[in-house]
Design goal:
2% strand; disordered C terminus
């Protein structure tokens, strides 16, 4: 209850004026999170003040002023967001990294399943050196040869290869890697609708990786396989892990555990992040295909292995620094729902 109306108005006027200035400046523009919180605080304070003066013998002018102020602030807070232009820079710097971090637990699960598959594949190679003949798909039949023999042949080819020979077939190889990486990644996403499909796809891809890596390491070709796989693998495998993240998001929405919503409501809740992550997957797939065709297949003496490893580590580090750190100081609209 207000005992002294004049004193009440004098004390509260500064808050009303501050809210009014925010509205005049344009509350729908992008503000920091602190600005939005301040706006909400002023709105709630003005609403409370309006309720107080309505129960007191206040002038119609004062009540009308507060009603208008509160209604304008209410509109800014609750109005639907206007359609905004798609800004590619903002999408890269804020939208994609935030979508990744919003669903980080699914990425960690995807990574863990893949790692478990790699451990299992490596274990198979340790107990049976012929396991790769039974595990590797037909398209990777060339990996069935002894790693040291493949390395010796590739290095010899590098010594005798002309520029024309190097350039020949690169476009076709890029297309092959692009198609194969797309098939693996989008199959991993789509099988999320089957609940277990994404898990199986991730585990199997992990097995393939473990089989190949351990095969080369056991044969004394650890540096070669690192230099061969790291440059494009840092990008390609990330695309597959994020595809697994998307697939597990879909599977969780299908199951709906702990959420009393329909499937459509659950899917709508992840739709925006899902579409942004799929956009990222497409970009990573293209990057990986070009890197694998034009860089990863270069071996010594044409390109030093440790330089290739360094490039791979830079790509890997840069990618995850971007995903984990970029866009943390988010700007939001006061007109957001």
């Amino acid at each position: 209850m207000i005992i002294d109306l004049d004193k009440f108005v004098r004390e509260e006027r500064q808050y009303w004026n501050e809210l009014e200035k925010l509205l005049v400046r344009g509350a729908g523009k992008n503000k920091t999170l602190e600005d939005v919180r301040r706006f909400h605080y002023l709105y709630k304070r003005a609403s409370s003040d309006l309720g107080k003066v309505q129960t007191f013998a206040a002038s119609d002018e004062l009540i009308g002023y507060l009603e208008q102020l509160v209604s304008q602030a209410y509109y800014q807070i609750h109005r639907r967001r206007e359609k905004q232009k798609f800004l590619i820079g903002y999408w890269f710097s804020h939208t994609v990294p935030q979508a990744f971090r919003n669903n980080l637990k699914y990425f960690i699960l995807s990574l863990s399943i893949s790692f478990a598959g790699a451990l299992f594949g490596g274990f198979l190679m340790i107990i049976d050196e012929n396991a790769k003949a039974h595990v590797l798909p037909a398209m990777f039949a060339n990996l069935n040869e002894k790693p040291s023999e493949r390395v010796a042949r590739d290095e010899q080819n590098m010594r005798s290869m002309s520029n024309d020979e190097y350039m020949s077939g690169k476009v076709g190889m890029t297309g092959f890697y692009l198609i194969n990486n797309s098939r693996v990644s989008f199959l991993t996403v789509a099988t999320g609708f089957t609940i277990l499909g994404t898990i199986i796809a991730l585990f199997f891809n992990g097995i393939l990786l473990g089989v190949v890596v351990i095969d080369y390491i056991v044969d004394g070709q650890g540096v070669f396989v690192s230099a061969w796989l790291l440059p494009h693998g840092s990008v390609e495998l990330s695309a597959i892990f994020i595809a697994g993240q998307c697939g597990i998001m879909i599977a969780h929405a299908m199951l709906g555990t702990g959420v009393r919503k329909s499937f459509l409501e659950r899917f709508k809740a992840i739709r925006q992040d899902l579409s942004n992550l799929i956009g990222l997957i497409i970009i990573l797939i293209f990057m990986a295909a070009f890197i694998e065709s034009w860089f990863s297949q270069l071996h010594q003496p044409m390109l030093n292995y440790y330089f290739k490893i360094a490039v791979g580590l830079v790509l890997l580090t840069g990618l995850y620094l971007w995903l984990f750190l970029s866009g943390r100081k988010e700007k939001v609209s006061l007109g957001d729902d």
